[in-house]
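Ticket #246: bound-state structure for 4FV.
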Amino acid sequence: MRIQVLTIFPELFAPFVATSLVGRATERGLLRIEVHDLRDYSEDRHRSVDDEPYGGGGGMVMTAPPWIRAVRDLAGDRQPWRVLLSPQGRRLDDAKVRELAAREELMLLCGRYEGIDERVRETMVDEEISIGDYVLSGGELPAMVLIEAVSRQVPGVVGLEKSVREDSFRRGLLDHPHYTRPPVVEGLEVPEVLLSGNHAAIESWREAEALRATLEKRPDLLVEADLTEVQRRELERLRKSARKSG
Ligand code: 4FV
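RESOLUTION: The complex was predicted; output attached.
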């Protein structure tokens, strides 16, 4: 997968692109990430990319010409899927991550200041994506969130066993609790079943705990979750015991 990033702070990406999963995937050629400085496409000698907003109101707006030159130049004769990270976008979730991961090439536009001239959105953007309903100072961190989430879906980037867990969200459930050594922490022990070596029992315990966690922390996810008959019955049992224990 090829990902191009446009930003006025390319240095923010250097450690991210060179480290951990994304770094390894890039070394292994599973990912190609290119970070470009938008100021290289500014035409004035101050390399400025912002200007005062028409209509006043304070703050600065990113001017359109550098973006238009940059997107056209970096796309060349290809058609990368051009994503603007912004609070106005559709919220990034597991389904959107999988959809983006199926694409050949992404181009991520990272805004700063109050935002980007609307005509960039109208002419140079295929999709707007938000990572959440809060305002950040730039689109760089949202772009990194998107790159990390999407790259985990690229075949070979995440080891098999882990990818099985990835499916938890695919099934619309939260993950089950995890335990490791030491066996006792602050007087708290490890659930007996996990020490039993009985893999069938461990699997159904994890299923039940994933359901319990989802029921307690994100019941909204259960509306969409595609549950098996066994899970439905388990969920009903959990709901009954939750009602009893009030
Ligand atoms: C954002 C978000 C976000 C808005 C103005 C950058 C900032 C500034 N992007 N999800 N939430 N962007 O807050 O994606 O230009």
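RESOLUTION NOTES: The beta strands are 2-7, 32-37, 50-51, 61-62, 81-91, 105-110, 127-130, 184-185, 188-189.
TICKET STATUS: resolved
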